[in-house]
Amino acid sequence: MKANLAKPAAADGVRLLGRAEERARYAREPLPGVPLTEALRSVRRTLAEGADRRTRLLAAALPPSVLLRWRTAIMDGSGRLVATAGRWRDAVTRWNPRRLLATRTSR
Fold it and tell me: From which domain of life does this come (predicted)?
């Protein structure tokens, strides 16, 4: 990826986008959007040239933001499932006949 951004237009675009992001966060007045559009196109085009077809298709079809939401939803669901299974196991083992018989005093 570093080799791709060695192109002057892409490198300048990355610097401009970084400066714009910093100014958008901390300055009173952000940079205007006109040069940013072309800088973003240049950087995206350069990165796309260096990526293989599979990577480009995955980025278009399943962007990381979507995958993060899915991953979070799956993890939340699995956590709820484990908690429910634990409560169910505790409820079932509470009435285990072996445990109930073990607490009786032998004659």
Answer: Bacteria
